[in-house]
Amino acid sequence: MHSLNLIKTILIEGNIGVGKSTIMSHITSIYPSNLVQVHREPVENWMNIKGFDLLKALYSESNRWTFAFEMTALLSRVKNHLNTVNNHHIDIYERSILSCFHVFIRHALEQNYLNETEYKILRDHFEYSCQKTLDLSQTLIFYFDLSPKECFERIIKRSRQSESNIDLKRLEQIKHYYDEFVKNFNLCPIKIIDASQPIKQMYQQIDSLLNQYIKQNQIHQITHDKQSPIMRKLEN
Question: What CATH number is attached to the domain comprising 65?
């Protein structure tokens, strides 16, 4: 059963180009690490695997490189979760194994970038990873919603070489799978945030939510400490 008052993990989700990296930078600049720990997508690692840009290869030769990329991305996210030190802060992840499977791997299968055997291997890894890494009872998803056209414009503006082969059609397809995921996934709450609103207004919305969850966690920790055997001894 999900606790409405205690959030320990927040997953930042959204289409390519929605602005996740900018959002993560904002959170890092506002909140100290003892309150919020930010875990970014290791994009730089994907762009340089012994000198090979796997991210660029994914978009330029999807049939050839999708399985390798999705396996790498899934492993990266699992490592991110397993390396997290269990503490009193909130952990915020840029994307998750949930969207890795329910959005990107499903999309790849439908587009025939993966065959059935590759899909089964990825699905088995995903299901095992979920059991080992995610406690959905204290997890919340922030889904940043933006039209594919606006995502495409932002991708062009930031002009990453690895993303030069992304087209509008791919973004429309990914948006479809994200919308399906948001509509049907019910194992933890999902907050939909309009990513087309003025950035200052969006930051205020994010900060308001985070402040609420931080306060709830602090209250919970104080209560927990007071109830501990050591604290009860000291009080007596």
Answer: 3.40.50.300
